[in-house]
TrEMBL record:
<dbReference type="InterPro" id="IPR004864">
    <property type="entry name" value="LEA_2"/>
</dbReference>
<feature type="region of interest" description="Disordered">
    <location>
        <begin position="1"/>
        <end position="30"/>
    </location>
</feature>
<keyword id="KW-0812">Transmembrane</keyword>
<feature type="compositionally biased region" description="Pro residues">
    <location>
        <begin position="14"/>
        <end position="29"/>
    </location>
</feature>
<feature type="transmembrane region" description="Helical">
    <location>
        <begin position="57"/>
        <end position="76"/>
    </location>
</feature>
<protein>
    <recommendedName>
        <fullName>Late embryogenesis abundant protein LEA-2 subgroup domain-containing protein</fullName>
    </recommendedName>
</protein>
<keyword id="KW-0472">Membrane</keyword>
<dbReference type="InterPro" id="IPR013783">
    <property type="entry name" value="Ig-like_fold"/>
</dbReference>
<feature type="domain" description="Late embryogenesis abundant protein LEA-2 subgroup">
    <location>
        <begin position="110"/>
        <end position="185"/>
    </location>
</feature>
<keyword id="KW-1133">Transmembrane helix</keyword>
<dbReference type="GO" id="GO:0005886">
    <property type="term" value="C:plasma membrane"/>
</dbReference>
<dbReference type="GO" id="GO:0098542">
    <property type="term" value="P:defense response to other organism"/>
</dbReference>
<dbReference type="Pfam" id="PF03168">
    <property type="entry name" value="LEA_2"/>
</dbReference>
<dbReference type="InterPro" id="IPR044839">
    <property type="entry name" value="NDR1-like"/>
</dbReference>
Amino acid sequence: MCSRRPFIKSVSNRPPPPSGADTAPPPPSRQQNYNFQINLPYRQPDPDEARRRRSKIAELVFCCAVWAFTIALLALCYRRSPDFRADSLSVSDFNISSNNLVAGNWDLRFTVRNPNGRKTVINYEHIRAEIFYGKVPLAETVLKPFSQEPKNETSLEARFVANGTFVDDWIVERLNEDMEFNVRFYASVSLKAGWRRSEEQDFTVYCRNLKVTVDDGGGGGHGSSDSGGPKRCRIPYPWLFL
């Protein structure tokens, strides 16, 4: 009779794995190293490139210097035209006869200013003034020559006398209305800036729309300034005043 060998359960001393844990070993990690090495061809410095760069910088500096010199020269040589301002206009003894002949006296007060500095003196010669109604000349007068120092103002007066100027009927119809007169100045002007003196040139100034109220009562007219204060006169071509 064969005897059976008794079953003996082997007991291990290692603790059992925790519940829910994966007992399979993790897969080995795969590490990939990508090493790129780019070998660029060696470029030798071009000596002409540095020379061209220096040439461009020199041209830019030269152009800036020319512009700065031009602006400084214009600022030094530029001369501003004088300022003319009509302060008031009055008329007295204004009368128009039956055959449309105008007689009257106009007194114009005006101011001339020299806006220039740097020892710029303005000389006025051969000054003539003429007064108009519309485009119809009524009278003219001659003024004395004068000079102006830099930043100087000169107050002057021009007196016009008409002793029989013919006018049209439409002017006669406006005797009792506000009338607007125009004054034009003509002169020969020269500049003196330090040692430099310019040649004489013709100079024209327009003072437009100078209002007065004409009263024809009693055979003698009277007018008072009604222009709302001083009025600046206009110079047609101020850029020619150099």
